[in-house]
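Continuing from the previous page of notes. For each protein in this section, the sequence appears first, followed by its structure tokens. Read the first protein now.
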Amino acid sequence: MTITELLLALAVVFVWGTNFVVIKIGLGDFPPLLFAALRFAFAALPWMLFIRRPAVRWRYLIAFGLFLGVGQFGLLFIAMRADITPGLASLVMQVQVFFTVALSLWLFQEKIHARNLAGIALAFGGLAIIGMHVDASTTARGLTLLLFASLSWACANVTVKYAARAHGSINVLAFMIWSSAFSVPPLVALAYVFEGPEAITTAISQAGAGAWVAVLWQSLGNTLFGFGVWNWLLARHSAAVFTPTALLVPVFGMGASTLVLHEPLHGWKLAAASLIVTGLAVNMFGGYLLARRKSVVGSDERE
């Protein structure tokens, strides 16, 4: 990754990490499925009126919209309503890294190097530490929902790679806008069935300014910027090299939850964050450092 790409990736994971606090604020006024539907409705409209459909097959737009909207965020919002804290949710969602790498190895025969495995192993150690410290605020239902949400995110990542292989260069902003439209109808239908028309009407009419700001941040910052840049980077790099950058999300997520929601920041959380950052460093810079070492050794031997 170039420095520019690395900075973009860090900007995305910062937005995604702090976004878990924003989600909690929005869920204070909106039921989860309605909140998800509003998020993707504002990500699609009015932008579809001004930005042409990307030159990809409809099936990629539909699949991505369903995986991301219904599978990832529908389940995530349900879990975060009452079954898991924002900081821990930001962690568990990063299981998508392992799902994405596994799917890419299986479907695309992508190569994985020893440094990638070492980096992922270190990061997984960080995930394991936090997993061992679940408490009464985290339910089995919440963890199960988030595991399926993580798998849906991985499937959305794979859909982008399929689209990139089939069509080459993709207008990622247009892809996000048009795919978001396919998230809305199933989310609205599910909200109507499981949350009820009365709850929907009441939430929309009584939601405060903070909740509507949360919706707009979800639509513009998290969806169009975050996933637009993510998909652009994902199309340019192997999943084993790139997707582990998302493991920084829980670092930002736990930090924002501590500062804004006053979640306690225990020593074990800092230890887990240290393992995750070390794993990322090994994964992203291990190849460069090995190449430099070989170059220095070779130069010394020639002298």
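Done with the first. The second protein uses the same format. Note its length before scrolling.
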Amino acid sequence: MKKISMSNTALGAALLALSIAATVPSASAHTGATHGKGDAAASISTEDKAFGRQGDPKEITRSITIDMDDTMRFGPADITVKQGETIRFIVKNNGKLMHEMVLGTIAILKEHGEMMRVHPAMEHDEPYLTHVSPGEKQEMIWQFSKPGDFNYACLVAGHFEAGMIGRIKVAAK
């Protein structure tokens, strides 16, 4: 696996932040505000990630509620879905702190977490993450187009390191 130097990581994060800020004028990162998902049906991304792609609300297979709280745990912490399923995640923050749910591989989550530590005010609005203020809930729709083992985590500073991570097993068709 190729190692990325810190200067390349910082440069990449800065370019990503500038790119996102130019295209998402009102997004707010980790400040207590939720990201505006806009009209999801009108803006569904076709970009494939290693862990799937944004789901179409018209093709939801089932809903899964994810609870978060200040014990730095998700409930449930393990989920199994079938390849091709489109899941509506109902993400509830039962705590008093800001939490988030970010889908990805362990490598992607660690990289994103590092970028957030270096650039805590980085603005972004991606379909594979949702920020949830205390006492609130948000929805995220994701299609698991590829089989494999993936994860979800809270990347608010210190939460991932405290163990706020869950697992998703995507069973092949």
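What the second structure shows: The helical segments are 6-23, 106-118. The chain has a mean pLDDT of 81. We return to this in next week's lecture.
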